[in-house]
């Protein structure tokens, strides 16, 4: 239990640290940052519940005013900005990434993680992000999805990096993976 709490806090801190990487802001107000990879990693390493808890903790700290989002943003105002859907999408993105990693029948931990990151950390995150962008920017949903599509190449790279990192963890310290014990018989490090 204590180890799980420490891991949740660690992953929330990691997502905050990924926000320090200077973002590239596009014309419609949504920055390209490394933080979405944090949601992918949280789900892929910790599993669905703990990964979502880490993102929930991160979002709570942002809501309390800590400047943890890329560009040093924090406070309730970020939840009514063009990035609101992407920020709120971190929690379900980590959860779905974790669900995929926990339940998919692939022997490679890295492939599990990469596939989970594509489904949860890209597809699910884009549903939330584009919906939020559509609402806040008063754009049709189809246009918001087209604007968000500019992020796909970078996010596919983040999903690949997530897979490589999880594969390395599976080789070195598989017990660190929150879902490993459940799938130990079907995993190839």
Automatic annotation (TrEMBL):
GO terms for cellular component: plasma membrane. Gene3D superfamilies: 1.10.1760.20. Pfam families: BioY (PF02632). The chain crosses the membrane at residues 6-28, 40-66, 78-101, 113-133, 145-166. InterPro entries: BioY. It comes from the Bacteria. Keywords: Cell membrane, Membrane, Transmembrane, Transmembrane helix, Transport. One of its GO terms (molecular function) is biotin transmembrane transporter activity. Its main location: membrane. It is found in: Cell membrane. It is a multi-pass membrane protein. PANTHER family: BIOTIN TRANSPORTER BIOY (PTHR34295), BIOTIN TRANSPORTER BIOY-RELATED (PTHR34295:SF4). Belongs to the BioY family. This is Biotin transporter.
């Amino acid at each position: 239990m204590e180890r799980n709490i420490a891991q949740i806090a660690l992953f929330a801190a990691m997502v905050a640290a990924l926000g320090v990487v200077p973002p590239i802001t596009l014309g419609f107000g949504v920055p390209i940052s490394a933080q979405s990879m944090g949601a992918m990693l949280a789900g892929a390493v910790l599993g669905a519940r703990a990964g979502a808890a880490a993102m929930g903790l991160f979002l709570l700290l942002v809501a309390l005013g800590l400047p943890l989002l890329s560009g040093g943003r924090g406070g309730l105002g970020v939840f009514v900005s063009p990035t609101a859907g992407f920020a709120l999408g971190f929690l379900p993105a980590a959860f779905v990434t974790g669900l995929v990693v926990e339940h998919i029948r692939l022997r490679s931990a890295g492939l599990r993680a990469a596939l989970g990151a594509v489904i949860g950390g890209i597809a699910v995150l884009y549903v939330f992000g584009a919906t939020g962008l559509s609402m806040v920017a008063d754009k049709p949903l189809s246009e918001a999805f087209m604007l968000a599509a500019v992020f796909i190449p970078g996010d596919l790279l983040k999903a690949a990096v997530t897979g490589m990192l999880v594969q390395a963890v599976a080789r070195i310290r598989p017990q660190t993976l929150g879902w490993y014990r459940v799938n130990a018989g079907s995993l190839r490090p």
